[in-house]
Amino acid sequence: xxxxxxxxxxxxxxxxxxxxxxxxxxxxxxxxxxxxxxNGDLLREKTLVTAxxxxxxxxxxxxxxxxxxxxxxxxxxxxxxMTRAGDFYQESIKDTVKMLEFYGDAIVMRHxxxxxPREAAxxxxxxxxxxxDGWGEHPTQILTDLYTVWRERGRIDGLKWLAVGDMRxxxxxxxxxGLTKFDSPVTFVAPPEMSLTDEFKxxxxxxxxxxxxxxxxxxxxxxxxxILVEPVVQPDYTKSRDERHGQVAHTPDNYKITxxxxxxxxKSDAILLHSLPRMDEVPPGVxxxxxxxxxxxxxxxxxxxxxxxxxxxxxxx
Length: 317
Ligand code: CP
Hints:
The protein is an alpha/beta fold.
């Protein structure tokens, strides 16, 4: 088995099936620390650097919370405008991360440019964790989602997934790659202009993923054990920052998960995931139904990052 120690977490494409399960086992083992709101000391001699070139609530703070829960330290930036990468110098990824590797023992990076974390990993000796790169991938989010399902159901195999949203999203790419390692059929529902690219479909087929596409959630929600939703009304992820100006469009019914839809069409024990932030695709009324799991999913976001940090920093094997 490959060791996680010193490894970059850039994509789920190269994750092996047993490696998913190892992350889940370590997360389960560390979970009591977060659940009891304690801070342990497993990473007391380590420092995490956060390099966020795009806004984030969950990914940055969950990594920071994970590090603090394990007794480690955190430094970094959440706004590249306050660094030399965001001013007159437009300092390159290489020059920036060459500095950051001296400030800590692992770097979690979010960037608007697809492939930026991979470029960073090329230049430094400490592990790079991809916290979302443009439209590229978001591996730690999907590890969180898979862990949430694994904890609920005790397995990933044999469960049918429904993925709704913009298929250009980095989470959808990581989900597709992740599910190729399991016996988990998935149906994708997306607006035509946001549908799976031919290139991505070829890749998923190459890895033997059992997938299909549908036009409306209503047609397929009844089959799903896991419903994973992302917005179709959202910013341009290739920009460092995309402000909202004026009114935004409403999510069409085809891509919306309402309480009525869940009550009339969904399996009674289906699990509804959303990585958040959301627009109107999952109305707040759904939060208190039995299907919603996005709050436990957010808690698991800390636990899974604890596992990833413990593994890549060599505190657990
Ligand atoms: N789920 C997620 O990536 O959220 P943030 O953009 O807040 O990090």
